[in-house]
Known about the structure:
By secondary structure, chain A is of the alpha/beta class. Chain A is built from 8 helices and 10 strands.
Amino acid sequence: MLLDIECITKKKKKKEVLKKVNLKIEAGECHCLIGKNGSGKSTLINMIIDVVEPDEGIIKFSGDFLNDPASAVKSKIGVLPEFNPVIDEFSIQDYLEYVGLIYKMDKELIRKRSEFLIQFFFEEPPSSKKIIGSFSTGMKMKTGIWAALVHKPELLILDEPFDGMDIFSANNMVSFLNDYKEKGNAILVSSHDMLYMEKVATHVSIIKDAEILSFPMSYFHANNSSFEKQISELLGYNPKELPEFE
Amino acid sequence: MSGVASFIIKRRISSVWEWPRIAMFLLRSAIALFAGLSYGIGAGFGVDFMVVQGAFSVSQCILIYSLFLMILCLYVDIAPFFKQPESFFKPYHPASFKEMSKLFLYFSFARSFWFFILLMYGLTTAISKELSFLDMLPSFLFVTLMYLQNRLFRLITFFKIPHAKFFLVIALLVMTGAFFVIGEFDNRLFSVAFLVMMLGVVLSLNLYINYRKIEKTLSSTGFYRRGAMNRILANKNMKVLLAVCLVIKVFLVSMLLINSLAAPGNWDDMMWFVWFCISPIVIFSNVGYNFFGINRTLFLTHILRENHFKSLFIIFTKVISVLLLIDILIVSILVLLSDWFSWELLSFYLVSFTLFFSTAFILSLYTPIIKEKYYSLDFEKYGSLVVSISATITAFVILIVTIVVGHTDYFLFLNGVLLAGSFVLLRFYPINFSEVTYDFLQKMKKMK
């Protein structure tokens, strides 16, 4: 078991955001986390990456606790959190090198992987003199994702990775994620974009009323209705009658 | 670990090492240096004229010199807040008014690291001789003056106001001229007139800066956050601020030196003040905050990937070491040109540096950096708070020891003990970065 979440509970202002949540992710799986705004997706991810503390429950990665100061578990995980911590002053190349050095990677290896990631995701690779601060939202997002990938983590966690991405980049991302999971790595993605989620997911975890419901993708393939419609129904979506807009 | 530190240092150096940037940096430094020197030398000569001609005592000069700065300080910090508190905070910082007021009061005082100079000077004077309120007042005002000048430079560098440096140079030249005139004519009417003029020039500049500040706050909500992020590392503001810090140091040094040479003896009873101006804290407390104060992104970059901040500590050490070398160079020039060298002074310099260095990083980690995104407008404040606390701790440790003994003749011995104690503590009780980081993370999680 790569990631094992057991009975996680989190309260915010006395309200339970997550209630006894369980989630298990194996190598080679891609779990898509879906829920309404404010349902607790980012909170769950923040707890997994040890930025927010759960009130109850435990989270383990390959049997180790993430927040153990003596452990090196974090080096096996790649994260793009809700807040994308790119350093605006650096160029992409510099930022990836900086992140790679934190993981104690060889400089030549960092350079090769940086080149690969930049070439793959960009139609025109940005100049090494262009700083991240001058990038668009989508480009910053891609930079954050590359920083999560540069050390080839066993578990990749992405919070809303498709936000701000153009259709080319998003499709490239889907191809990359599918290839990455097929090579035996696990992925946890949170997104509202059903189109891309359907293309990458092996499992879908829906957060509803502070609880989590997990389904394999075969569950959705067995039905005739569209993926988006099934998810909407599971979330309890009721189309509202549109009153006259005066 | 050192790879990360080397990388960040090299990148910063390489970003500076481009001719257009070098030219701009030199230009800015030259302007700042010119401003600082004109201010310092002018003030020095002004004070000297007045003292030599017997018009005023040193304390009176400082009193006059700093009176208008106190008003400016009040104006810059307090008036805009009470005029338009909502413009400053409410649009995108969901904090209560009580919270905002507390923060405002807290940091208005705490970030003024110059208060520690006042405290030290005042209290050590209290130990060494009979103290009157009038002895304290000029120092207090002088402290305020330094604080305001420091803040003014920061505002200018942060908001990139067009021609601001030019205005500042003009303001400082006017001040310099005013002192010459005061000294030459020894006329209180002239003094008042020129002081009013000085006040007007600098006040106008502050008014303009604050106007722009409010305007930018209202028009661009992302500005401060981006600004804060941009200031994580040794960025352009850092470079300019470094120049500013050096200028402040040069100002202090030039003022002290000129008066020392022109009117020997007048400063003998203010030697404590001289020492604190020489202290490396003056420079570090300006620059240190900028490096470690606002680095939410940098911290997050590391938090997501490792469970300790040893690499950040190495970066901090390297930056501080470079600054120390620059500071030593400046102080060495001063000491060589004056007759101020003493082992006491040297030991004081080392003690203040050691204490500052050993407390600043730890305090940085315990400052609620993450929380700033919720209701901080002035991103300088947390880092500034750190250095203020650090400087105050340094000051009070020395002070307490001095008070215990009750006689400054033991100062050299006590500093030696403190230094030895610090080294012994660091040697046998090294800082456990894993524990420090773990505690920091626990605290950070609770704030969410």
